[in-house]
Amino acid sequence: MSLRGLTVTTPAPSLNLTTLAHLKTSLDVASSSTGEDARMNDAIGRASASIDAYCHRTFARQTYTELGSAFGGIEFQAKQAPVVTLGTVTFDSNTLTDVSIGDRDQGVLYRQNGFQWTAQSWTGRGGGGRLWDMGIPISGQEEPLWSVGYTAGFILPGYDVTSGKLKVLATDDSFNDTSSGFLAIYAFLKAGDIVQASGFTNTPNNARHVITGTPTSVKIATTSALTAEATSTGRTVSPQTLPLDVEQAALETAKSYYQQRKTDSAVVEKQMGMARLRYSERGGGAGDPGIPPRAAGLLRRWVRAI
């Protein structure tokens, strides 16, 4: 979705909030059945876009430059969240180094000296050098003089690494894949993210682990005390950070779109003789983009104010 003053500088590989495999499982469709794959993928894409629009945010992790105004307070509200890393911050083209992440999950930035009010000023009619001759701020006419670079969002489903070349090194407590299994997503992984490992021989390795350092296409180091294991099959490292309730909402919406693709959305009820069929509501409330009620309930806490 597009928000005023927000530019994507590094786009996510995909914006889909669930995967074809997960949708097939939800629909009890065999993975080997591929005849409806194109329609299902289309439903996933449309459902994901609808959810982003409904929640006024892009859930996929991307890097942004945001131009915005400020009002003199110590906090700056970014349009996307969670903010995982902060890039270059400038005010009126001057670079600042004293801005930090105040609330990661809410996308709030902090500056002890405050984010200067950027209101335009009315210069007045006097010329005596008095205070008000310097200009009276006009409330509601703020200039977008603040520029903030940041990376925000979640790692989406679909980037699990299941490889016969996955191994564990105890020397740096890392998961390694010599076939560059992390290539598709490593650039978006950040220190502090959590990966889920499963299928390893040693039980302590099969857990949730906090990433440390800078991941590469072949290595993800963690803060855990891992036990060394040589390469073997049946192992998985999952970097997904998208909350499961958001993915479930995507599944509910994609299923609704897919199953109702042949139904006239204007028809709410059909009757033939004594038989009556009433369709469930297709929307989650006024102004929603076609989110089913169950999905809307799951997404309620994720909707951002605009």
Q: Helical region count? A: 4
Q: How many E strands?
A: 20
Strand residue percentage: 25-35%
Number of domains: 3
Strand order of the largest sheet: 1-2-10-4-5
Report on the architecture of this protein.
By secondary structure, the protein is α+β, with helices and mostly antiparallel strands. The protein has three domains: 6-152, no CATH class; 161-238; 257-299, no CATH class. The chain has four helices and 20 strands. The strands form six sheets. The protein has a five-stranded antiparallel beta sheet with strand order 1-2-10-4-5, with no helix packed on it. The protein has a four-stranded antiparallel beta sheet with strand order 11-18-14-15, with no helix packed on it. A four-stranded antiparallel beta sheet has the order 16-13-12-17, with no helix packed on it. Helix 2 packs across helix 3 and helix 3 (244-259) runs antiparallel to helix 4.
Could you list some keywords that capture this structure?
single chain, 306 residues, alpha+beta, 3 domains, five-stranded antiparallel beta sheet, four-stranded antiparallel beta sheet, 4 helices, 20 strands, flat
